């Protein structure tokens, strides 16, 4: 459990004062690529104007960083009613599926990562009624089922991800407010 707690601490430290895309990359690098509780995983981001969950793959970094092998037809988006991730998004509840291949909600597409077991967790974001997206944790090894302890860690990791994304948004709003003061020729001290 120490390595999992250290990974969470490292993620928090590396995410401070970063943009949301950098936070998502750090989450994937620290939590997923570190293989603390799963063999692979991804983050799907809500795109409400299109009504889809989109695979977060900023500048194709998933392939460049070795998260996914190149040359495969990876699924880049999912409908809200598509698969386990869609169910986690719709219900706003963590979905644990050990033996995914036999679950009627599981959607398999050509080229996708082989998945035996998975956990999909909605990423909460402030007061919003809709999740920011879904964090998906996968194991291809049929002998590596997700335990209750794994699920507890997934919840902690995902809640922390949501909190760091929210802090990033608040920092961005604060920066915008400071720029308004500068445009109007005022500084912070003039209001104190």
Major beta sheet, strand line-up: 3-2-1-6-5-4
| Number of beta strands | 6
Overall pLDDT level:
83
Tell me the span between the first and last alpha carbons: 47 Å
- Unreliable stretches (pLDDT < 50, length at least 5) are none
Beta percentage is: 15-25%
Helix content estimate: 25-40%
Provide structural commentary.
With 192 residues, the chain is an alpha+beta fold. It is built from 5 helices and 6 strands; from the N terminus they run ααββαβαβββα. The protein has helices spanning 2-15, 20-32, 61-64, 83-91, 148-183, and strands at 40-47, 52-55, 77-79, 95-98, 117-123, 133-139. It has a 6-stranded antiparallel sheet with strand order 3-2-1-6-5-4, sandwiched between helices. The chain is globular, with a radius of gyration of 18 Å. The termini are far apart. The model has no long low-confidence stretch (mean pLDDT 83).
Task: Give the SSE layout.
Elements: H1 2-15, H2 20-32, E1 40-47, E2 52-55, H3 61-64, E3 77-79, H4 83-91, E4 95-98, E5 117-123, E6 133-139, H5 148-183
Helix pairs in contact: 1-2, 1-5, 2-5
Short structural summary:
This protein has 5 helices and 6 strands. The protein is of the alpha+beta class and 192 residues long.
Key words describing this protein structure:
192 residues; alpha+beta; 6-stranded antiparallel beta sheet; 5 helices; 6 strands; globular
